[in-house]
Amino acid sequence: MSNRRDDDAPILDPELMSNDTGIDRRAFMMRSAMIGAVAVLSGSAPANAKETAARAASATAPKVPLSPDLQVVKNSKGPVMTVVDEFYKVGPGPSSSHTIGPMRITYDFYQRCTKLPADQLAKASALRVNLFGSLSATGKGHGTERACLAGIIGKEPATIDPAFLDELAAKPDQTFPVKLGSATFDVSLKDVVFDDTHGDFPHPNTMRCKLLAGDKVLLEQEYYSVGGGFIEWKGYTPPKKGQPKYPYSTMKELQQHAEKNKLSIAQVLMANELAVSGRSEAEVNAFLDKIAGAMVAIVKSGLAAPPGTLPGPIKLKTKAGEVYKRAQDDTFEKQRGVGVVSAYALAGSEENARGHLVVTAPTGGSAGVLPAIVYALGEGGRKLPQEKIRQGLLTAAGVGYLCKHNATLSAAEGGCQAEIGVASAMGAALIAQAHDFDNQVIANAAESALEHHLGMTCDPVAGFVQIPCIERCAYGAVKAWTGFMIASNEIPANRRVDFDTTVDAMALTAKEMNSKYKETSEGGLAVSVTLC
Ligand code: SF4
């Protein structure tokens, strides 16, 4: 049933590629920065967001063609090779490319510094981070500098206490002593430099990290935050990967492996994880438990946060805690379920908007969807065994891999269908897998959830991942459940549309979608909502 594209050329990774009209995430980020700048310079918020967006649209974004040397560009052919620890990444929101990637980069550089010989470290006197391209143009609005500082002083992205970043936002003049070998010196936000926005960079999100001894450079490395929290550096060679035990590039092939070998989709994916990553099953399970634990913690922390206003010009009030409390009092049991799942998703998404920890599943904007489902199936509701949650997370990852491989996870390429739509499809598959439904039901559930997000545009108000993103996560979670309910209650063989066809439709829709609706803030809510 699938009408696969003839060229079989996948659209690339989140936040990576320019769309065919040449307007991309960088342009969007520049425009967001312009909107903010207009407000700051004029001393008041723009009277009319449409007018502001139109003005901002005239800004020239740094146009940086992706270098063919980047691994992420080379990776786009062949069977699915992605593994879970590349796909699910924990780090500070709100953006996988502007906060998680940069923090992973500076943390990597810090680790490299610690490995220098003692006589060199003894001379160290400063650390410096230079941000280029889009990171420089819009990093301030995203808190990129805070994420960079946290990493460069040795804080790990996956375990950082969000309170540290909040405190840094409130008191940006703080200094932090860094001890490297026998040397100790102070580092502050002044050491993170917003550098050139235009230039001949291999990637729009380019950074350079340096360890200095006075004017002398002890260690220097150029890095790229290539999207979805993935990072590369100059001279990067990808880690050696094994061949998948069950090669697949479509859901049909994945299901065929499962049927032929009498395995569940989760079991096929686990066998591939082991073969490709070289890790043991215990290691993969430990990683999946860590991700599930992070998702649970994100929802809990979002629910427990005191009511307040989210950062940014929208001044959006939080609502997760209130929706949760009131949903629990709902006299209608079934309504209660919808309300509670929605509250869980709102909680996760509000955490992203606060710049707190999120899991890319598949992106920061969709960060409320999967945590809501994991929490609702586990301690926040159904209390399924951890083993079932793990299997569900694996199968959800498989759905995400296929969307990445054959379409896109990038709103800048495909609109919101590629973020929340994919998250919802992953969620539907997760629920079906966790309840041990047949592979066909799993595929159908994912198809159903994705099908009903096709064409969904990305039009975040003022360029902040808040409206429509936060409530949209709640809808994504509820629609995941709807997809599962339909797929598990219909006759599976009667479903007329298969998952691969819908992924192809998403890719086609992505190609044909007007660029106004691809994270450029030039259309839809972004120009209809007036901020005052
Ligand atoms: S509208 Fe959707 S795709 Fe766009 S930023 Fe918000 S969540 Fe992401």
Show the helix and strand layout:
Layout: H1 25-42, H2 49-57, H3 71-74, H4 84-87, E1 90-92, H5 96-114, H6 118-121, E2 126-131, H7 133-142, H8 144-152, H9 162-170, E3 175-180, E4 183-188, E5 192-194, E6 206-213, E7 216-227, E8 230-233, H10 251-260, H11 265-277, H12 281-304, H13 320-328, H14 333-354, E9 357-359, H15 369-377, H16 386-406, H17 411-414, H18 420-434, H19 439-451, H20 469-489, H21 499-512, H22 525-528
Parallel strand pairs: 2-5
Antiparallel strand pairs: 1-9, 2-6, 3-4, 6-7, 7-8
Helix pairs in contact: 1-2, 1-7, 5-8, 11-16, 12-14, 12-15, 12-16, 13-14, 14-15, 14-20, 15-18, 15-20, 16-18, 18-19, 18-20, 19-20, 19-21
Bound molecules: iron/sulfur cluster.
Residues 365-366, 411, 416, 419-420, 458, 460, 465, 468-469, 472, 519 line the site of iron/sulfur cluster.
Please give a structural write-up.
There is one protein chain. This protein is of the alpha+beta class. It has two domains: 46-66 and 241-528, no CATH class; 96-233, D-3-phosphoglycerate dehydrogenase, domain 3 (60s Ribosomal Protein L30, Chain: A), CATH 3.30.1330.90. 50% of the residues lie in helices and 10% in strands. The chain is built from 22 helices and nine strands. The strands form three sheets. The chain has a five-stranded mixed β-sheet. Strands 1-9 form a two-stranded antiparallel sheet. Helix 12 crosses helix 14 (333-354) and helix 12 (281-304) crosses helix 15 (369-377). The relative contact order is 0.14. Bound molecules: iron/sulfur cluster (SF4).
